[in-house]
């Protein structure tokens, strides 16, 4: 009987039961796909990260990510959770570790301060698809139960990605954001048409000087009705804002804080850093706090 060491971590917060919960399996060596899918389904978080010994000489660990229904190539909050749990378990000092994922080898910075940790994830290469056509836009608005008048006029509806793509939808009002009641079956159907499973609705309607955006993320096609705080949405949002010239920045560097989870009472904050080269996003990083909820052993 194998003992599987599991943490549950709330990412992008220092307050328990806020932010985004992720399962972390620290000793995943020997687990097969069926085992991992079953564990992710049992934990029932939006994602569970599985840490393996390195399969190459260039990385420190291999990490795979499963929702309750499928494997996904990358996950921001589960990466924060995985490296936070690893730092706690191994009593790590400040360091940079490299993880091998399906989107490549990514450097992860661990900062230790006052016996706690902050984690910075360098995400995959930023890409931005063309703006949606009118027919697809209308299908999306209908699925989200939004009107065209709700949209932020300067924000094109596009798919942005740093490894796990999201549709970016800018709207005017935080009240509208929090009252959204999407048609999940319509979003699921649309996902097959556009080749993207996640929908990130965001607004600049913020009453906090240090918070630029509020957002909500829906991905019913992969079993996530709503994700509380999404690294793979807020990170690409940074690249989207830069490439579409929607924000001002200096010295080829843009940084902001995005907040998510308000409507779900799981508020969390993602710090996003974008390095810019000739007006295009060159590197996207997300940084966050985390807090451990429990540590347990699964007998498999």
Number of helices: 6
Low-confidence stretches: none
Strand content: 35-45%
Strand elements, count: 18
Helix content: 10-25%
Report, as a whole number of angstroms, the end-to-end distance.
6 Å
Model description:
The chain has 300 residues and is α+β, with helices and mostly antiparallel strands. 22% of the residues lie in helices and 39% in strands. The radius of gyration is 18 Å and the shape is globular. The relative contact order is 0.18.
Name some characteristics of this structure.
isomerase activity; alpha+beta; 18-stranded mixed beta sheet; Phenazine_PhzF-like; isomerase
How is the secondary structure organized here?
Blueprint: E1 3-11, E2 20-25, H1 33-43, E3 48-52, E4 61-66, E5 71-72, H2 76-90, E6 95-101, E7 104-113, E8 116-122, E9 127-128, H3 134-144, E10 158-161, E11 166-171, H4 174-178, H5 184-194, E12 198-203, E13 213-219, E14 224-227, H6 231-243, E15 253-260, E16 268-277, E17 280-288, E18 290-299
Parallel strand pairs: 2-3, 4-6, 11-12, 13-15
Antiparallel strand pairs: 1-2, 1-18, 3-4, 4-5, 6-7, 7-8, 8-17, 9-10, 10-11, 12-13, 13-14, 15-16, 16-17
């Amino acid at each position: 009987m194998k003992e599987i060491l599991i943490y549950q971590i709330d990412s992008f917060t220092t307050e328990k039961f806020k932010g985004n919960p992720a399962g972390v399996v620290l000793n995943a060596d020997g687990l097969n796909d069926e085992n991992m899918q079953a564990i992710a389904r049992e934990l029932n978080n939006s994602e569970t990260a599985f840490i393996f010994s390195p399969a190459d000489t260039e990385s420190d660990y291999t990490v795979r990510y499963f929702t309750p229904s499928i494997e996904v190539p990358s996950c921001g909050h589960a990466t924060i959770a995985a490296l936070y749990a690893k730092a706690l378990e191994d009593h790590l000092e400040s360091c940079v570790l490299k993880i091998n994922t399906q989107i490549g080898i990514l450097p992860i910075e661990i900062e230790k301060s006052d016996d706690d940790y902050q984690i910075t994830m360098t995400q995959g290469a930023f890409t931005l698809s063309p703006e949606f056509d009118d027919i697809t836009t209308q299908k999306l608005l209908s699925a989200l139960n939004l009107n065209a008048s709700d949209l932020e006029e300067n924000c094109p509806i596009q798919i942005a990605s740093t490894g796990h793509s999201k549709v970016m939808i800018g709207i005017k009002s935080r009240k509208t954001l929090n009252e959204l009641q999407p048609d999940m079956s319509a979003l699921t159907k649309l996902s097959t048409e556009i080749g993207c499973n996640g929908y990130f609705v965001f607004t600049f309607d913020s009453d906090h000087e240090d918070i630029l955006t509020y957002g909500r993320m829906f991905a019913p096609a992969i079993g996530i009705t709503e994700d509380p705080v999404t690294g793979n949405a807020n990170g690409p949002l940074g690249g989207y804002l830069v490439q579409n010239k929607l924000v001002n920045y200096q010295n080829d560097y843009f940084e902001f804080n995005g907040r998510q989870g308000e409507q779900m009472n799981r508020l969390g904050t993602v710090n996003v850093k974008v390095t810019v080269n000739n007006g295009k996003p060159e590197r996207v990083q997300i940084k966050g706090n985390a807090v451990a909820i429990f540590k347990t052993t699964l007998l498999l």
